[in-house]
Amino acid sequence: MSAGMKAISCCPALLARVSTWSVLLLLTIQEAGAVGAIEGEVERQPLNPVAIVMFLIFVAATLVISYWASKRTQSSKDFYTAGGQITGLQNGTAIAGDFMSAASFLGITGLVFVGGFDGLVLAIGAFAAWPIMLFLLAKRVRNMGNFTFADVVSMRLERTKIRIVAIGGTIVVVVLYLIAQMVGAGKLIELLFGLPYEIAVVLVSILVLAYVTFGGMLATTWVQIIKAVLLMTGVTITAFLVLWQTGFSIDVLLAGAADNHPLGEAILSPGVIFKDPVQIATIMVSMLFGVLGLPHILMRLFTVPSMQEAKKSAFYASLFMGYFYLMMIILGYGTVMLLYNNPEFFTSDGKLIGGGNMAAIHLASAVGGDYLMGFMSAVTFATILAVVAGLTVSGAAAISHDLYAEVICKGKPDSKKELMLTRLTTIVIGVIAVALGIVFRDENVAFIATMPMVVAASVNFPLLFLSLYWGGLTTRGAVIGAVVGMVSSVVLIVIGPQVWVSVMGFEQALFPYNYPALFTLPLALLTTWVFSVTDKSARATEDRDNYNKLLIRSEYGPEDG
Amino acid sequence: MDNKDKIEAIKRKTRQRLGFTVLTLGLYFSYVLNYTSWGAFLGNTLGDSHISGSLVMFAGLILVFICLELVFLQINRDRKTK
Asked: What is the pTM of this model?
């Protein structure tokens, strides 16, 4: 019996683990949250010299870019939005880079390795947000805002109150994301490069601070673009080499996978990991609407010079992501076909070396040797840097622009002070990220990675959508709806399986689903509607009157509006 | 174009935006069929191959979404040209 077969010879045991893996890996698709991809399965690997050399080349190139970008980052606008001079193609590539993360790459292939088709639900969830982004949000958000999504929602509503709510939504998402990222980064780097956890966390933070503090959004965008191109190149090469072995036949690939997996042809259809349609719906709602409410993604719409370029950004992003996720079929089933019967990738007790999330890296090794494996490991590390950089810019903008410039200074800040505060905030966020990364090292952070998507779907998305598309929205309705969305998200996650059972140790969860946005999003929308239509205040009249004027601006641009 | 005309044009565009969105959401959530008895046919394979209906649906949805985006962009480009 091969090592691989030995590993899964006991199917009930495998499937029992699968459900746990799936919950953790689900977190990973959150286009950055590598935490889920590596949690609980980390085994420190030997130092990988090829990966380290390739990574050092990447770091050197990105530091040169940061130096170049620092010369062009002279104002807050430069810092937050790269001066609005990124083209649609460049921005689309950067957005795709945000989504083609280590988590997507490792998480989806890992899930397909374990459970076949069910692993792909994560890909469709993240991908489908992009057509909606193009149809509903890209143009209007670009035309209504300056730097952040809070700019958009505060246009027609009472600015201080709604900004504070929007800042709350942004900070919660960014900080929780950052914790998940840093814990994920530490463990992933430990796993891929053999570096100690603390060193990995500090290294990530130092590099990100170098990019963001000096180069702002311009450097962050170029780091993301380079990484996206490298990752797509690596994925393409790996997929090509996998198909080479099957005579470029998808059917041979799937047949080989079904032959090698203990569950046989069951992995070609749904039902191995997920069986409950409501569970699938909860995941799909959280994924899609969560993506549409992520502040660091929305912020990218302001980095382009025009609404046309904003629309192009969304289109190019989905084009690249579509390609990437289609490649995941080949890579995912490639891991099943090529790894299960190869003892080289299993420990003596039959476990995949490094855990299920190393499947993609092992696949690179199986088809391309040490060089391809080193390349993919280096790109994975680069991915983490790029995503943390984007989060840091978004967090810094929430504090220095939304809070300081717009709330405290009432929209009239001293621009030099604002830029200085932005850089200071960036450094503080970097230090906090290291501290939280180390504090949460041994914690079960699964729920921390879930929360940002659910909060983004239940707080940020309803705020943004209703402010752009519903003339009846009032400040009172928006504020109460956002608070209800936030509280219900947190409560349902706490009484759900990830916290109630996994963290607090109770036998059974009070709420059965990990991703409650299927319930919290409609609740937030309903609450907002009820408290808006019943709002008879003078402010409510002003909020409603603002709608038509801003509607013109949202479609025709600031010049006409 | 005065503001009244602009508002009318925006209302038409809004209906178009919402139409594309509803279509996309409908297709997206049809993926849940894979996990219901109504979608059992998706478990069948294409002919003698190992390619299941579910896999075709996954790849097909990605391609259809990209096509929808292209149509949306094209419609808006045509309208702008006119």
From this structure: 0.88
The structure tokens 């932005």 sit at A422
Pair A498, A514: CB distance under 8 Å: yes
A341-360: pLDDT as tens digits: 888 888 888 888 877 778 88
Provide the shortest C-alpha distance from residue B41 to chain A (in Å).
11
The rounded distance, in Å, linking the Cα atoms of A361 and A188 is 12
Domain A3-20+48-441: homologous superfamily in CATH? Sodium/glucose cotransporter (1.20.1730.10)
Q: How many angstroms separate the CA atoms of A383 and A207, rounded? A: 12
Residue A180 and residue A446 in contact, taking contact as beta carbons nearer than 8 Å: no
Optimal mutation site among A99, A111, A117, A287, interface B, most CBs of chain B within 10 A = A117
Rounded Cα distance between B40 and B44, Å, is 8
Looking at residue A379, its amino acid is V
Residues near A290 by beta carbon (within 8 Å), at least 6 away in sequence: A30, A129, A452, A453, A454, A456, A457, A461, A517
Three-class SS string for B21-73? HHHHHHHHHHHHHHHCHHHHHHHCECCCCCCEHHHHHHHHHHHHHHHHHHHHH
- Which residues are registered as beta bridge partners of A352? A346
pLDDT, chain A, mean: 85
pLDDT at A94 over 70: yes
Cα angle vertex A415, ends A411, A417, to 5°?
A: 105
ipTM: 0.94
Q: Map tokens 């919290």 to a residue.
A: A520
Separation of alpha carbons B69 and A191, rounded Å? 39
Decide: helix, strand or coil at residue A346: strand
CB-based contact B54 A251, cutoff 8 Å:
no
Q: How far apart are alpha carbons A536 and A530 in whole angstroms?
A: 12
What are A171's strand-pairing partners?
none
How far apart, in whole angstroms, are the C-alpha atoms of residue A550 and residue A558? 9
CB contact under 8 A, B73 and A275: no
Q: What is the pLDDT of residue A382?
A: 82
pLDDT of residue A42: 55
B60-78: per-residue pLDDT in tens?
Answer: 999 999 999 999 999 987 7
* Domain segments of chain A as ranges: 3-20+48-441
